[in-house]
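Can anyone check this?
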Amino acid sequence: QVQLVESGGGLVQAGGSLRLSCASSGRTFSGYVMGWFRQAPGKEREFVSSINWTFGQTSYATAVKGRFTIARENADNTVYLQMNDLKSGDTAVYYCAANYGSNWAYWGQGTQVTVSS
């Protein structure tokens, strides 16, 4: 069983930065693809970024490319999302998720990111 715990959300002004963290309780992320998703009020959950834990390959949504960076830390089994140049459109609840195989099977509880303009 993989339990994911996000942290690092908060309120920030437009142009500012935040770093989200996702830690695992229960097992290592080895063999998984780890991802970040977000859901804004009244909108569907959308993909933000992912990283292959073993090989380090990354992927980004067009809306965040060049501003967000996903990274992993093997030592503490944590995946990060560095978010720079934040915009009001980035306001959402951000979720960490784990994919082992073909589906995003495990999800964290979410962390709120609010960007004020």
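Reply from J.R.: I decoded it. The CA atoms of residues 49 and 60 lie 4 Å apart.
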